[in-house]
Amino acid sequence: MGFRMGIVGLPNVGKSTLFNALTKTAAAQAANFPFCTIEPNVGEVAVPDARLDRLAAIAGSKQIIPTRMTFVDIAGLVKGASKGEGLGNQFLANIRETDAIAHVLRCFEDDDVTHVDGRVDPVADAETIETELIIADMESLEKRLQNILRKVRGGDKEAVQQERLMRAALEMLEAGKPARLVKVDAEDAKAWRMMQLLTSKPVLYVCNVSEDEAATGNALSARVAEMAAAQGNSHVVISAKIEEEISQLDPEEAEMFLSELGLEEAGLDRLIRAGYELLHLETYFTVGPKEARAWTIRQGTSAPQAAGVIHGDFERGFIRAETIAYDDFIASNGEQGAKEAGKMRAEGKSYVVQDGDVLHFLFNT
Ligand SMILES: Nc1nc2c(ncn2[C@@H]2O[C@H](COP(=O)(O)OP(=O)(O)O)[C@@H](O)[C@H]2O)c(=O)[nH]1
Ligand SMILES: [Mg+2]
């Protein structure tokens, strides 16, 4: 399952600069990894995870295969977009297909770069975009509701649930608030996700600051941080310009460049990690002499479902998962040591996979 993060924001805030830097840096970092830019605006990046390298070193794995995340550079969001301004509704379909939104906000001053509204105000920009998404959600719900009401009259049980969820969403949106603020019960979670509302997706604000403020942030990014905290959303501070420069350096040069700027790691790594947290994603590993590989799952995934990420047959024929916690694998210096120390567990169908688990699946074909 690929996780997709849509990069949105007003024009000229640095979305494409960031996207290009992300995909280029990722390609350079994962030298032996089949990286691809799928379409000009869609790129897959390797999720950096130092644990994977340690596991591979212990197991002597020939190949290291990180897990991946997809970024989509979504252009065309402007004031009035929901009414067909700019690229109009084209961007909506692009956003619907994502799991989360990285909302880039301009927090840099530069008279050479035009701001669409003639002033730099990231909090107002965030509201502009959110308003467009709220309107787009309202319009799509109002259209869909008519259909659902027909089905309800026809006695369709699922439609009754959908109508209830749609009305809850509409009430929130009509109050000018995003659908993500609606409290959804576990039994409604799937139907809710299926509605694919733009404003129900989790948001990560990306404050694009100038190069000299990347380590500290600035007054504008501080305002975004405040707004994000009040909304229960998260934020990261990065400089798209720095990321662009890093993407042209080799790894050692990049490290030196970062330390000169007082930065511990590239914005790429922070952004991807924040995306992972936002989506409640975890990683498990498969480790052997041939390859060490990381796999992405949602928190709370059962062992058979986790096996299904590798292959559907693994899930259908699941027998058990030989499981070693990451720390045990390291402390016992590998699988053999873990076995001897009694740290390898045989876990069944109801086991909930934990972040960092090293798994070996046994299955019927
Ligand atoms: N000074 C400065 N300019 C930037 C920064 N990020 C992007 N830009 C410039 O802003 C312009 C628009 O950037 P772009 O990435 O195309 O914006 P998009 O429309 O959001 O995709 C380009 O000329 C970039 O070089 C930044 O952090 N500082
Ligand atoms: Mg662009």
From TrEMBL:
Record-listed ATP binding positions: 12-17
Keywords, in A-Z order: ATP-binding, Magnesium, Metal-binding, Nucleotide-binding
CDD domains per the UniProt record, alphabetical: TGS_YchF_OLA1, YchF
Cofactor field: Mg(2+)
GO MF, any single term: metal ion binding
SUPFAM superfamilies linked: P-loop containing nucleoside triphosphate hydrolases, TGS-like
Family of the protein in this entry: Belongs to the TRAFAC class OBG-HflX-like GTPase superfamily. OBG GTPase family. YchF/OLA1 subfamily.
HAMAP family: YchF_OLA1_ATPase
Protein's UniProt name: Ribosome-binding ATPase YchF
Organism: Salipiger marinus
Lineage, broadest ranks: Bacteria, Pseudomonadati, Pseudomonadota, Alphaproteobacteria, Rhodobacterales
